[in-house]
Write a structure and sequence with these properties.
- The complex is a heterodimer of chains A (549) and B (330).
- In chain A, 29% of the residues lie in helices and 20% in strands.
- Chain A contains 19 helices and 20 strands.
- Chain A is globular and about 65 Å long.
- Chain B starts with a helix and ends in a 5-residue tail after the last helix.
- The N terminus of chain B is likely disordered.
- Chain B is 71% helix and 0% strand.
- With 330 residues, chain B is mainly alpha-helical.
- Chain B has one domain: Orthogonal Bundle (MetI-like fold), CATH 1.10.3720.
- The chains are: A alpha+beta (549), B mainly alpha (330).
- At the A-B interface, helix 13, helix 15 and strand 16 of A face loops of B.
Chain lengths: 549, 330
């Protein structure tokens, strides 16, 4: 689950990093020729400030997530073109009944400190994430595993762990069979379980993590194609290729640096000057009038991504004035998505008609039940039925990415259609913005973007709208929705999808979040790099990038 | 404490008193003298009167005065210039260039650039004028006290002034405004007030120094000594005799700095920490438009031009006033 920072998505955000390039003043491409593998060299990617320490279980946003993606290998890796899962650290993931899974870990994998990755590395990591007192933001992902409830304990209304409520330190459904094998027992049958295992929350962790998670978060020891070099706050996160990486495709570059920028335009200017190698999502000012084609020639890539941009209403106990579903629907009806996409994004987004992005199997258009159309008359009528709205509506966003344009446009659209005051409100950066949301201190409406963690309808619904789910920023809770998704998890194929679609349709009645548009990204790159690919997750595929020349 | 201060002055007063017996006549008439000095414009040419005459003959002054008058009317009654609502924006017009229906075109959000530029004058001029009034009052007061009393009060106040003088205006403004940020919920007057305070708190030092030095000059003038000898109170002497004669340089400086403050306000707003939306300001408009300069330059050029002309007008006015008040150029 990645809550996305960038406009649409985030990917960009984190950017990958690489390279030395930049900061030191020498450009990545110039020092090409490293020896690690392939052509070598260093590249830089547009990054942003991670909200949390770099711990897989603690990171549910893209600024940190994009970095963790490179640092940690998981059992499964998603194809950079199609997002199809294929085994990475896993030798095999098997089950006969979709409840009892046997996972075999391949030989030869090591953490970046040289310690071997074993079945125990996974089991310990998963148990740590699920154990309530640890407060891992991604604990929710382990919910299908037997014993999760006991390990997780209870949470109060504000989302804080209730002291002493966890009755077990580990999940009973996890068992280490031998050095390279462990079994997982789920509470319900789930055929899509292996699909999720490519998400970073399922990454293995080395023994040193458990001794001091805090220190680990500052200097993570991972298992992926890149290892951690340094993290200079607000400046850059530097990674280097890990020589003993066992994956099929090895990095072609030596170093990747995620350079942290205050805004997208600054990053774009650096890209034009060849001081930054990859910007996963170009700012709207560059897209306007197709200016980027002039600036970059053919050095851009366009692709649809598994990202959706929404606006979420603050939880009722934070801002009771927005609790009425009719008011929420009125606001959704008052947003002229077509006009905003055309004028602000120059057509590089697709107006949303539901809460699931079109890239996944099982996408159904029109889940919004007509509430995502622009219809000022109906909006006004619903507003009257809801008893009107007094005061100024605020839409908060993180000021370090390119959101001001569309937030202002959305506000104007709401203002003109409903005749209520609306104002965009900028928070200094993504980390500050997410912290306020997670602490339930953000009133009004705030922008939320979702970059899928794994290619599944489920990932667009459960982590966001199930009761107490990790990215349920609006604290939405609908027992029927919970029931439907729980049931869907036990089904397979078409049936599961139908059930998820049913659950999605329930959201239209309560409107916990307003769907805005689906992601599509135009990424740009400098003359120093080649073979740049953007994944369906809107991240840069660092394994394919090479330095030019 | 005051007595300790006054004592060193007493001998002077006494020595002056020695001459008094020679002039009993004027002394008796003294109560009327100050009045005459003040209202004697018809007879003797006062500095202010001469200056005014000079100003009315100066084309620089006339041009800048006309521009400033128009801007002030614009700030007070923006609806005289446009009947459009600057807050109404329609995306379908996004980034359209100048046309008959919108003289300056539309901005990214489809708002009328002309209407927003007209309404933007208010915030900028308000900040400029309020800050200038603030620094003139604070600076003059401190400068006058320091200059007139001299001694340790002067040392203390001068060093105090130096502290503020050492902080660059723009840097200080950024620090103050970043520490006390305004956001959406902040009423417009508070947002503007914060900018005025941020600039005012750091901007008064020059006025203070100018005032102090002219007061030191003026306080040795005969009419001040005379008033003292007659037992005039400190407040009366300062307000009736010292201030009117020491004010001119401070006023000239204030006129010039007013334009500078408008420029600094725009800079802070451009950086995103000065005025905040929904206040309409040229700095914000320029900031929003900068990334689209290649595709839609009109969004930046019009507010930019108004800002430049306004700053220029105030600086030209200050220049003209300085020339008029400067006896050396006479």
């Amino acid at each position: 689950m990645r809550v996305s920072a960038r406009k649409s998505a985030v990917v960009g955000a984190a950017a990958l990093a690489l390279a030395l390039s930049a900061c030191g003043g020498d450009d990545g491409g110039d020092d090409g020729g490293g020896e690690a593998s392939g052509g070598g060299g260093a590249i830089t990617i547009r990054g942003c400030n991670p909200e949390n320490p770099l711990i897989p279980g603690m990171t549910n946003e893209t600024c940190g997530g994009d970095v963790l993606d490179q640092l940690f290998s998981r059992l499964v890796r998603y194809d950079s073109e199609t997002a199809e899962p294929h085994n990475e650290i896993a030798e095999s993931i098997e089950s006969e009944d979709n409840i009892n899974w046997t996972i075999t870990v391949a030989d030869g994998w090591t953490f970046h400190n040289g310690e071997p990755i074993t079945a125990q590395s996974f089991v310990d990591a998963w148990n740590w994430n699920a154990y309530g007192p640890n407060g891992a933001l991604n604990a929710y992902f382990f919910e299908p595993i037997e014993g999760y409830t006991e390990a997780q304990g209870e949470y109060d209304e504000s989302g804080a762990y209730v002291e002493g409520s966890a009755t077990a330190e580990t999940m009973s459904g996890l068992e280490v069979v031998d050095e390279s094998t462990f079994t997982v027992k789920l509470t319900e049958p789930s055929s899509s379980f292996p699909l999720r295992l490519g998400y970073t929350a399922f990454a293995p962790l080395p023994p040193s993590f458990f001794e001091d998670p805090e220190a680990f978060g500052e200097e993570p020891i991972g298992s992926g194609p890149f290892q951690f070099e340094s993290w200079e706050r607000n400046v850059e996160i530097k990674l280097s290729a890990y020589e003993d990486y066992q994956g099929e495709t090895k990095p072609q570059i030596d170093e990747a640096t995620f350079k942290i920028y205050e805004n997208d335009d600054a990053a774009y200017n650096e890209l034009q000057a060849d001081q930054l190698d990859i910007v996963p999502q170009l700012p709207t000012s560059a897209v306007a009038g197709e200016a980027y084609k002039n600036d970059l020639g053919d050095r851009f890539i366009e692709r649809e991504t598994g990202v959706i941009q929404t606006m979420t209403f603050a939880p009722e106990n934070v801002d009771p004035s927005l609790a009425n579903p009719k008011l929420r629907q009125a606001i959704s009806l008052a947003v002229d998505r077509e006009a905003i996409v055309d004028n602000i994004f120059s057509g590089t987004r697709e107006p949303a008609t539901g809460w699931v992005a079109p890239v996944v199997e099982g996408f159904q258009p029109g889940a919004c039940d007509g509430f995502c159309e622009y219809d000022p008359d109906r909006a006004k009528q619903l507003l009257d039925e809801a008893g009107g709205y007094s005061g100024t509506l605020t839409i908060s966003y993180n000021g370090d990415a390119d959101h001001k344009g569309w937030v202002d446009a959305t506000c104007n659209s709401i203002q003109n259609a409903l005749e209520i005051e609306c104002q965009g409100k900028s928070e200094v950066d993504f980390a500050t913005f997410r912290t306020k949301i997670n602490n339930r201190e953000m009133p009004g409406i705030f922008r939320t973007g979702w970059q899928m963690d794994y290619p599944s309808v489920e990932n667009f619904l459960v982590p966001l709208y199930a009761t107490n789910a990790s990215a349920n920023d609006g604290l939405y809770s609908n027992p029927e929705f919970d029931k439907a998704v729980a049931e869907a998890a036990t089904l397979q194929g078409e049936e599961a999808i139908a059930k998820y679609n049913e659950a999605e349709a329930m959201l239209a009645a309560d409107m916990p979040a307003v769907p805005l548009w689906y992601g599509k990204t135009i990424a740009g790159y400098s003359t120093n790099v080649d073979n740049v690919k953007i994944t369906p997750f809107q991240t840069v595929d660092l394994l394919s990038v090479t330095t030019a020349g | 404490m005051t007595s300790g201060l006054n004592e060193p002055n007493l001998p002077d007063g006494r020595s002056g008193a020695q001459t008094l017996p020679d002039e009993p006549g004027p002394d008796v008439e003294a109560p009327e003298t100050p009045e005459r000095a003040d209202s004697g414009e018809d007879k003797a040419h006062s500095l202010a009167g001469d200056a005014l005459r000079d100003l009315l003959r100066s084309p620089v002054f006339l041009i800048s005065a006309v521009i400033i008058s128009v801007l002030i009317v614009m700030a007070v009654f923006p609806s005289l210039f446009t009947n459009k609502d600057p807050h109404f924006c329609d995306l379908q017009f996004s980034r359209q260039g100048p046309s008959g229906s919108a003289w300056f075109g539309y901005d990214l959000q489809g708002c009328d650039v002309y209407a927003r530029t007209i309404y933007g004058a208010r915030a900028s001029i308000l900040v400029g004028v309020c800050t200038t009034i603030f620094i003139t009052i604070v600076g003059s007061l401190i400068g006058m006290i320091a200059g007139y009393h001299g001694g340790w009060i002067d040392s203390l106040l001068s060093r105090f002034t130096d502290i503020f003088f050492g902080i660059p205006l723009l840097l200080g403004g950024i620090i103050v405004l970043a520490t006390f940020p305004s956001d959406v919920g902040t009423p417009a007057w508070q947002t503007i007030g914060k900018v005025v305070l941020a600039l005012g708190v750091l901007g008064w030092t020059s006025v203070c120094r100018i005032m102090r030095s002219t007061v030191i000059q003026v306080k040795h003038a005969d009419y001040v000594q005379a008033a003292k000898a007659l037992g005039g109170g400190t407040r009366r002497i300062l307000l009736r005799h010292v201030l009117p004669n020491a004010m001119a340089p401070a006023i000239v400086y204030a006129t010039i700095i007013l334009g500078v403050f408008i420029g600094v306000e725009a800079t802070l707003s451009f950086l995103g920490i000065g005025l905040q939306e929904p206040v309409i300001s040229w700095g914000i408009a320029i900031s929003d438009a900068q990334t689209y300069i290649r595709q839609s330059p009109h969004m930046l050029l019009f507010p930019g031009a108004f800002l430049s002309v306004t700053v220029l007008a105030f600086i030209m006015l200050g220049d003209a006033v300085r020339d008029a008040f400067d006896p050396k150029l006479r």
